[in-house]
Specification:
The protein has 412 residues and is an alpha/beta fold. The chain contains 15 helices and 17 strands. Keywords: Pyridoxal phosphate, Transferase.
Length: 412
């Protein structure tokens, strides 16, 4: 079934309340890899907690607290179903992808020793690099990298070249936030498991755009953020196979993650997932995330992917027709388009496009090893989603055609 972005826009206050304009200009939002707009249903789900419940979870014995517990538990079930986890207990709520990856990395410190190997790729986001840097310093483990192929993609062949019997962790993004290629997660997991390594899927850029099935892919751990998939900010998910989660040590300690503790230092941890959910939880965010999962399921990922491919094709054709763009991922599988305008600094391009009402991202996009592969200091990134239209793409292409005139943005 085809997706109707014009109808979908009615679900989003950023379009419905602004009449598709922002600051008097047409609103052409193409920074969806950074964060997405939120539909009314997500906002209403979060508001429901603040307006009708506002009680803490797993602490109270009164009716509002019971309502909070019920809503929280149901949201966990919704998210578990969304990713096809075996049980809701395999879903841990975090503040986002960054916390989730830190939870995993630091949680594995007791499992890593001097000489063990942690495999990443050249295209990973800082959140999937820097925690491992610190853990490697603490444990004496070694960081190794899967080299990208000529297009900038992580491949099974690339992993086979670096993996060894010393490898304990393989942590890769299923979609690079810069290159936009979808990697073969199932095959990469098989290779990792041949060497008895734990495979971690950073699904920040894939979760909103394609169907995710953790049982089918067989990943050991997966992390993602809610705000990149129409959900609220400040909420994310750490999924893990129960037998893997049982081995991890918590990063955060405090209320409700323990079963008991004594003055002599004795501590007994609570069961999974609660041992990883210390302190007051972001209940409003959790309810909003569950609503986002339901919204995306109602739209359907086949329709979303088809729509993104159609818009991407138009954008690539337009940029090539302009003749002034260098495109770094022309045949990528997703709505991420990474490019530069010849002889113009990426930030100047982004500023100029903003002057035209087109919002994109520029710089290294937090993937600061990747410029070593691309041989450029930064790029411009346009990223598409289900509410973008052909008119958005036409406006984007038109603005890029005159981006050499970027000084006009400062002297209008």
């Amino acid at each position: 079934m085809r997706l109707d972005p014009y109808q979908i826009r009615k679900d989003f206050p950023m379009y419905a309340n602004h009449d598709s304009k922002f600051a008097g200009k047409d609103l052409v939002y193409l920074d969806n890899s950074a964060t997405t707009f939120k539909p009314f249903s997500v906002i209403e789900a979060s508001d429901h907690y603040y307006m009708d419940i506002t009680a803490n979870t797993r602490r109270g014995d009164y009716s509002l607290a019971n309502a909070a517990d019920q809503a929280f538990d149901e949201a966990r079930r919704v998210v578990a179903k969304f990713i096809n986890a075996k049980t809701p207990e395999e879903v841990i709520f975090t503040s986002g992808d960054t916390q989730g990856l830190n939870e995993v990395a630091y949680g594995m410190i007791p499992l890593l020793h001097k000489g063990d190997e942690i495999i990443l790729s050249q295209s990973e986001h800082a959140s999937n690099v820097l925690p491992w840097f610190e853990v490697a310093k603490i444990t004496g483990a070694e960081i190794k990298y899967v080299m990208l192929d000529e297009k900038g993609k992580v491949t099974p062949e690339g992993l086979r070249k670096v993996i060894s019997d010393k490898t304990k962790v393989v942590s890769l993004a299923s979609v690079s936030n810069v290159m936009g290629y979808v990697i073969d997660v199932k095959e990469l997991v098989k290779i990792a498991h041949e060497y008895h390594a734990i495979y971690i899927d950073d699904a920040a850029q894939s979760i909103a755009h394609m169907k995710t099935d953790v049982q089918d892919s067989d990943v050991d751990i997966m992390v993602f953020s809610g705000h990149k998939m129409l959900g609220p900010t400040g909420i994310g998910v750490l999924y893990g196979k129960m037998e893997v989660l049982e081995k991890l040590h918590p990063l955060l300690y405090g209320g409700e993650m323990n079963a008991r503790f004594h003055s002599d230092g004795y501590l007994s941890l609570d069961d999974v997932p609660y041992r990883f959910e210390a302190g007051t939880q972001n209940v409003a965010g959790v309810l909003g995330l569950a609503a986002a999962c339901q919204y995306l399921e109602n739209i359907g990922f086949d329709a979303i992917s088809s729509h993104e491919r159609e818009l991407r094709k138009l954008a690539i054709e337009g940029l090539k027709r302009n003749g002034n763009a260098i495109i770094y991922n022309e045949d990528a599988d997703t709505g991420i388009i990474t490019f530069n305008i010849k002889n113009v600094f990426p930030q100047d391009v982004a500023t100029y496009l903003s002057h035209k009402g087109v919002f994109v991202r520029s710089g290294t996009h937090c993937a600061k090893i990747l410029p070593e592969f691309l041989h450029v200091d930064g790029t411009v990134r346009a990223s598409l989603y289900l509410y973008n239209t052909k008119e958005d793409i036409m406006a984007f292409v038109k603005a890029c055609a005159t981006a050499e005139d970027y000084l006009d943005a400062f002297f209008d």
